[in-house]
């Protein structure tokens, strides 16, 4: 339809140019066609602008406004030509209307150029704000072409208009404004500055602008030579130009496709060089003029200086663009590097980064750096059950939460990595006094339930711990990882939720129940007790010690207490183990001659068993230990089977003079119900209540529990105190006694500070 209308209009212009029906009728038809085309652009522009949003509305409003001014100029022109009979009057009021069109068309092109949908990170680049680069390129080309046009013909045309300043200004305004608008439109097309859906609008508008410019140039020439009229053929641009502009206003592209949105703007070398080709031509022209002795005139010099400054501004923007591009490339490289060396789910280091850091740590140790190195391999137990229950999305939530817990257990300089699936690795570097303490802290942190989709999920982990021997030559990172992995799997074979410290061993995994049976009531091979002091917080003076069981296999592997205790319980040897610890603790505290109370752990499942009470009485008699110096700690790794029977058993122990404590209160199966039902003498607050992660909440909870126990006449010991801040927290809460690494690590009685201990 549009193509047919163009051909019909062109045919009408051609036939009208022959003036078969006379010159007067031809002029009326010519002016009517011009005015109709202009008014069509005005009406169509405003109507379509009401139906489209954003930039597509505003560029149409600007063009329609410019066409309205042009149409008013055409009305005035028709009056002068047809009614008043002035011929080609210039300057006149018609020039005001005609020249208003480029004033609105130019910003309309810039608005259309801004219709490109760019990523947010690109919109702040200086060379892309409102087509600044296009404006500068257009002005450079315009200025250069103006100099060439002025030298070739325009200068002579303008000089022929006479000395009148207004006449001169009007004469030069037409070619100059047309040149600017045409160049900008061409640059927008050539440089692909407008998205593909809107390129049809730009192409149609550009054709219309070029058509208007052609007829404007003819008009300016005819005015300069004093012509009385313009033939309809010369006015063809004044009819076809507004017609094409109307088509541009009517065309509404379909929505952008996703595949177009991601396409990059391609700029070839010739596109970059295009603005500078006319500049080069101007330089050659001026050189020739200087050699010929003519020299450039004032207009050429003025415009030439302006072009030079425009080129400098364009280069400045190019430098800014290049700097921004380099910055973006650098940021992209950093992002790619981070993605290459970090796990996308947890944000932890991945296997590649962990291997690199482990290699460097091993090399530093091999070079004589004497830098302590500890490797911990962590594998979540029964993680498949979480995926089966909550799906892989729930499993991902849990893995991310586990990663954060692991990070909270190590220092800022240590490395935590996810090796894949539910496997994690931790690299500790620096002076480490007790790497086993880090493993214990990790075990304790992971045992606190995790929230997965609104449900609390308990998590257990098996860990392998490797401390390289400095005397061992040629140890590699792969060897260390293999050792940590084998130690972790050894822990899984022992019953999971364990930490196994690696020691070279060609034997089968350690078997504590067998060692306990072979001892036949005696001391199993590798079994020993260590003692940790319990201090009075006021002066940090020891008032008691807790007996803790340790077992080392024949090859030197230190097996965690959780592992071998669970193995003994599973083999039905829990009672024998409790009796062994009780007897050995009473013997060693008596032999040491220390006037301290000793705490001994007993599983809650044996509370009320006659064998327990017999073992307590026998040990006190055998070593002549005063009953008030023995405290039996009930460890609730399993619930008390019968609270009423348990309460009766506690009273019988208390009748012997022995005190009874409830261990790890606040964790496991301990609760206020248990505290209410069991008449214990003392509770030990679990380390989870004294870590100081949330100091205000921790202090409030501790203060409440201490106040409750004071009302019940129950003493309180705070466990797991490792820092001065934690000690201050429990002091403010009202605790008077505490236990933890801050006051002493577990060790044989002979290695404790005997002078301090004896002061209790």
Automatic annotation (TrEMBL):
TM ranges: 32-49, 61-80, 96-115, 127-153, 165-190, 202-224, 236-252, 273-295, 301-320
Cross-referenced InterPro entries: Biofilm_reg_signaling, EAL_dom, EAL_sf, GGDEF_dom, Nucleotide_cyclase, Rev_trsase/Diguanyl_cyclase
Residues of the signal peptide: none
Ranges where the GGDEF domain occurs: 371-504
Domain (EAL): residue spans on this chain: 509-760
Keywords, comma-separated and alphabetical: Membrane, Transmembrane, Transmembrane helix
NCBIfam families reported for this sequence: GGDEF
UniProt-recorded name of the protein: GGDEF-domain containing protein
Species annotation: Amycolatopsis balhimycina DSM 5908
